[in-house]
Write a structure and sequence with these properties.
Blueprint: H1 2-54, H2 64-68, H3 78-95, H4 108-132, H5 157-161, H6 167-170, H7 180-195, H8 199-218, H9 224-244, H10 270-277, E1 291-293, E2 296-298
Antiparallel strand pairs: 1-2
């Protein structure tokens, strides 16, 4: 039993090490894209902080969702945040599962390049939208009489650049159309829908997205229009951006993507490196040319000569 545990543990560490080495090579190629996406997350937060200075509280607008959904109140406002945090953390952990599990359908670095591209495009549209028109925030801290509804003019540019994180992010006002929570939710859910493998988890993810939409409205954090616009805008953004990006290599197909840096020194070919990446031992004697003739799989380079029927005979 001890030997079995030690052997499996050794395999796991070998797999993690090989996967880490491969991902680091990819990161060396794609680090500029990853960094640009992360920097834009700060820019998005800075823009949301800036519009708070322009926010002017007023009467809550007439909203169909507010009329249909009972108000959760300030005491239960944490429910939507808890559900969103669960989805956020679960998605991040899933993107790193190829480091541990053998089912390697994607490369983590390449997946995050796509995810950040979706987020940046959606957030850029969001910034344009909420700066175009400032609506009175429906959230409790954005209403008339709240000290947080209006921000005093900053004393220095540093006060703006620091965004008062995390308090300034949680208690922001004015960045309404469209919901930032729904941007992250839909990007994560649609990404898992395409690259995930568990059907039940896909169904649960969509259920969480719908539930979160209702909870955001019931918590009065956004108007219904903020959530509705997010649903079709983010979906369309992902559709069009995904068309422009090269298709992600499917690791289960056994093909080595041309965009991956493959070392060919020491006599190792691309196929050998790919076997190493997937945690398989490499044995040159196992390399066989396979040809398919008349639906039969042939090995060792054998050829089959068949007589094609002619003239119906």
């Amino acid at each position: 039993m001890t030997f079995y545990v030690a052997r499996e543990g050794s395999k796991l560490w070998r797999r993690v090490w090989m996967e880490t080495s491969m991902e680091l090579q990819l990161l060396a190629e794609k680090w500029k894209l990853i960094l640009a996406g992360l920097v834009f997350q700060y820019i998005h937060g800075l823009a949301a902080r800036g519009v708070h200075y322009l926010h002017r509280p007023g009467p809550t607008l007439q909203d169909l969702g507010f009329f249909l959904l009972p108000e959760l109140g300030q005491q239960r406002a944490y429910i939507s945040e808890t559900l969103f945090t669960f989805l956020f953390i679960s998605f991040i952990l899933w993107t790193f599962h190829p480091f541990i599990f053998q089912s390697k359908k994607f490369y983590t670095v390449i997946l995050w390049c796509r995810v950040l591209a979706f987020l940046v495009a959606s957030q850029a549209l969001r910034i344009i939208t909420f700066y175009s028109t400032q609506l009175p925030g429906p959230n409790y801290h954005c209403r008339e009489g709240s000290k947080l509804a209006r921000l005093p003019h900053p004393d220095s540019i540093l006060e703006v650049l620091l965004i008062n994180f995390p308090h300034g992010v949680i208690y922001g006002c004015g960045d309404l159309i469209f919901s930032s929570h729904m941007i992250f939710t839909l990007v994560f859910v649609i990404t898992y829908q395409k690259y995930g493998t568990k059907r039940c988890i896909k169904q649960i993810a969509w259920l969480i997205a719908v539930t979160l939409s209702f909870l955001i409205i019931a918590s009065r954090k956004h108007y219904t229009v903020d959530v509705v616009v997010a649903w079709y805008t983010v979906s369309l953004v992902i559709f069009f951006v995904d068309k422009k990006l090269p298709e992600m290599p499917d690791r289960t197909s056994g093909m080595s993507p041309s965009l991956l840096p493959m070392s060919t020194k020491d006599g190792k070919s691309k196929e050998e490196n790919h076997k190493l990446i997937n945690g398989n031992s490499v044995d040159s004697t196992d390399w066989r040319q396979r040809a398919q003739a008349n639906g039969k799989l042939l090995e060792d380079g054998n050829t089959v000569h068949t007589d094609s029927p002619m003239n119906g005979s």
